[in-house]
Every structure is written in C-alpha cells, then in structure tokens.
Amino acid sequence: MKKYIFSVLMAAMAAFTFSSCEDVPEPYTLPTQPAGPGNTDPNQKGSESNPYTVTEAIALIKAGTAPSTAVCVKGKITAVTFFNATYSSLSYNIADEGSSDVIEVYSGKGKDGANFSSKDDLKVGQTVVVKGIVKAFTKPDGTIVNEIDKNSTIISIENAAVTFFNATYSSLSYNIADEGSSDVIEVYSGKGKDGANFSSKDDLKVGQTVVVKGIVKAFTKPDGTIVNEIDKNSTIISIENAGTTTPDTPATGKGSLSDPYNVAEAIAAIKAGTAPTTQVYLTGIISDVAFYNDQYKSITYYISDDGKGKDMQVYSGKGLNGADFASKEDLKVGQKVTILGKIMKFVDKNNKEIMEVDKTSSIIKIEDGGSTTPDTPSANNGTEAKPFSVTEVIAKGFDPVTKGVYIKAYIIGSAPGKDFTTLTFTTESASGTNIGIAASATESNASNCIPVQLPKGAVRDGVNLSANPGNFKQEIILYGDIDKYFGMVGIKNVTYAKIGDKIYGTKP
C-alpha cells in the first residue's frame, strides 16, 4: 500500500513521537563510561514516560539533589551550538516552552546513541527527550553551567517527519501515513531506493509518496508504549512526487507572500520564541554579499530594513525560485529581495547569536540594481591611515592573534556580567572594565559587536562608560591586539584610544 511521508504541520504528529526501536550497536568508543541504566521504574520521574522538564532538572542541580545516574529531560531546542567531528556529537541547548532558562546538552549523541553527521541533524524548535547525567559544570572563569553531560542519547524527537539520519549506517528514520489520516507508522533506520544508502535527511521530503518493503511489527518501548513500525533495513521500492523539505508556508497572515516579515519583525519573532518552524516570506535590502559556495552554488549574504546593517544573515541561500548562483556577482548590495526560508537563531562556537535565514532558502523577487560591493571600504590593513572596521575584525578572528593594529568603531555599550551575552546598549549599570563596539552607532544586534578589554590606567579611566557616559555612541580609534576575549574575538592590550580630540594612553 502506498503511504505518504507525514507533514510536520499536522497536530496529531505530536502524539506519535517515537523513541528508538531495537538497539543497533554503534561502532564507536568514547573516552568515558556510558551514562548508566538510570531509572528502572517506567513511571518514575525522570523516566522516558515521565521526563523532567528543563526547569525541574535545573532545580535538582541547584539543590544538589540531581541523580548520579542517567535520567530523561524533555525540552525544546533553542540553539545548536557545536558539532564535534572527532566524536560525531552535537552540543545544543534546550529549554521549556516560553522559558529563557536553558540546559546545555554537551557533546551528545543522536537517537539511540547514533552518530551525528553535522549541525543540521538537529533544528531549533524541535522538542527532544534526552537521556543523560544532569550536573553543574564550573568553567575556568567561575561561571556555572547547567548541563547534561557528554554521552547522552536522544530518546525521541518531535516536529520532524523525517526524524533522523544515521550517519554510521547511512539510513533514515521517517514517518508515513495514508493521505488525510493521522495514523502513522515509523520506518525505522530504513534504506533508500532498492537498498541504496542515504546521504542526509534531505534525501526524503515531506509530501513524497513511497512504497516501502520491510517487516511490519509492533515495538514495545521500556515504558510499555507500543509503536507501530517497519523494522530496520527496509528498502524503498518507488518514490513519487517531489515533496518539500519543509511544511507548507502560511497562505495568509504574517509571513505569507501577501504579508511578508520585514527584517525587524523576523528578528523580534525569533527573540520572542514565536518564529514559525516552517518556511516564511520576508523582505530586506542586501547590505553585504559575503561568500559564494562553489560546491552548493549558494551565496551567504546579509539583509536589513535600511540596507546598512548586517542585521540578518541569509546562510547558503539559493537564487530566484531556487536556482543555482554562478558567483558572488549574482547578488548586489542595495537590491531589495523577497525570500522564502526558515528564520532562526544560530549560536556559533564563540556563543555569538546570529539571526539568520537557514540554508536552502530561495529568492522569490529581486528589486533594484544595487552594487556589487558594500558602501564601506574593504581594503583596510589596520594601520592608522586604514584602521580595521568591526566587521573586518570579526572576519579575521583571534586565531592567530593579530598584534598592534588600529580599529575604528563606535562605542555602543558594555557587558556588566561575566559573559558578552550580557551586553547592554545603554550606559545604565555600565561596566568599568570593558566596552562593546560596532561599525554603526545605531547597532542593536549583539552578533555585530565585539568586546574591548580596558586595561588599568589612562585608557580605562578615560573610555569606560561607567565613569564616562558621554562616550556612549561616540566614534573611537583604538590601538591594540585582536585576541580572544569573553571567549570570542575581541580587542585586548589597548595602549591608545582617541575619542574626538581626546587622547588616552600613548600613541605608538
């Protein structure tokens, strides 16, 4: 019988979130002991059938009563931070719906302990049940992080019709249903057409009709729940329809073609946690064309509402109606574009938040001619005559350290806490030991800012916002090193600063 790969938009999907079927041994060895058996009572708090919320897990950690064995925690993915290629693991953050309190899943494994193949194996907005040891981890700077320790495994994933790609066995788990029905069957760790290997989750798409050959069975989970499945090693006999990698886009309302998001609205929805998990339409003006990917014929570029700031990154996007790009010159600064894609927050390895349109987006409409280069110069070399911009500093990174350069920027705030994520765009409660700088005095996106360490002495005394609130939004010339600061690219060892006609420190 023909079955349809189930749309993630159907409400009944949530009732059919599946955990692992039979355990498939994975040929890897990690340098620590596995998480342990955890709870044996299927109904006990922290079990698969009754997992802790993120809030409950954090409370146990803070109270010092967290179990020493593995427990289950359920939460919504808010950020996928890092893929460890050595161990094929992912670090990601989960939180309760509507909560800002997160727990980090550190170097975790996939469903049933399977390897991950890339950051794309998990998506912001998916709800997962994770089994592992919850604990507090103290960083070298004294910051305490609530985490699920390495070697955790995912028990179930919601909001995904194609649920999991197993990189070790090149197989896919996915759900199918009759058209119009909410009753689903899980195809567990299946193979492709005629038994071929899959290469990624994108090899199957929501809406495709498949004929699958395999053993149909009932699988009983540890909590007694029965899952209807087609057992591992099934093969696809035929595939019909192109399908779509994402559910349908909204036909009306905000995010539809008739009422697209602007950049500010899209960012606000992401920050509020109300961004749709499906593709939406949005408009913006291209402010920078950053990178052409020759392998995927895609371009990474930035958009904003005024065409000046790098407010939102369109990561590895496709061209008009999904067409391939041929070069960077296919897009130009100043063009107004309407884009179809998924809006989300991406957290890089330096914990910098980037508001982005996820890869595989496509352009629906292009207006205006634009220019091929940004308005700002790009040939600066860090000399007094040609100081680096903040954008260029971010691009250079801190590995290796770049010593003794000039930077020209605007003071836009400071980080009063121990992390740059506490950056505030104000002088209230300003730090006396650091400032945040950006390419524009009106910048309000922390991902476009970098921290500056203010050493004791004339530079700190004259520049810091706590004692000098009048420096806020003023242009500043700095001389120092591009180095790691706050765990990210920043400026340290500043020996000279100039604000207007006032000089602090000694000019080199």
Give a written overview of the molecule.
This protein has 508 residues and is mainly β. The chain folds into four domains: 1-17 and 160-248, no CATH class; 32-157, Nucleic acid-binding proteins (OB fold (Dihydrolipoamide Acetyltransferase, E2P), Beta Barrel); 263-367, Nucleic acid-binding proteins (OB fold (Dihydrolipoamide Acetyltransferase, E2P)); 390-505, OB fold (Dihydrolipoamide Acetyltransferase, E2P) (Beta Barrel), CATH 2.40.50. It has helices at 54-63, 263-272, 390-396, 458-463, and strands at residues 3-5, 52-53, 71-84, 89-95, 102-108, 127-132, 134-138, 144-148, 153-157, 162-166, 171-177, 184-190, 209-213, 216-220, 226-230, 235-240, 280-293, 298-304, 312-317, 336-341, 343-347, 353-357, 362-367, 402-413, 434-438, 450-453, 475-485, 488-499, 502-505. Mean pLDDT is 83; it is low at 6-40 and 372-378.
Structure, briefly:
The chain has 508 residues and is mainly beta. The protein has four helices and 29 strands.
Return the CATH architecture of the largest domain.
Answer: Beta Barrel
- Biggest beta sheet attributes: 8 strands, mixed
**Beta content:** 35-45%
Q: What is the radius of gyration computed over CA atoms, rounded to a whole number of angstroms?
A: 25 Å
**First and last CA, distance:** 78 Å
User: What is the CATH topology of the largest domain?
Assistant: OB fold (Dihydrolipoamide Acetyltransferase, E2P)
The helix content, as a percent range, equals under 10%
Strands, count:
29
Q: CATH H-level name of the largest domain... which superfamily?
A: Nucleic acid-binding proteins
Number of helices: 4
What structural category arises from helix and sheet content?
A: mainly beta
Number of domains: 4
